[in-house]
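This protein record is not my work; I was only asked to verify it. Take the sequence as given and treat only the tokens as open to question. I have pasted the whole thing underneath without changing anything:
***
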Amino acid sequence: MSGVTSLSCTAWTLSIAGRSISTLIKNQGIGDLYELYAFSKKNNMDYNLVYIPGNFPDTSTQAFDPDYMGKLFDLGFRLETNGNPWKKVPPRWVH
């Protein structure tokens, strides 16, 4: 393989591993939402959820991003101030 070094293969592998772990954590969190919903229904409990809307235009640029955190806080404040109701089912729930 021309131009491929052990170092470039290692960097490529670490990049894939990092994205894989990130995807795993995200999907585990989504699964937890559905599990908590099923638990609440089974036990006659109310289910309340608030999450960042999919159309939120900003993204974080680093692990600790004060600007992004401030924008998230402002969004949460606006949602609450406008009387945004709790979501009663997980995202993309089909009845």
In short: The mean pLDDT is 85.
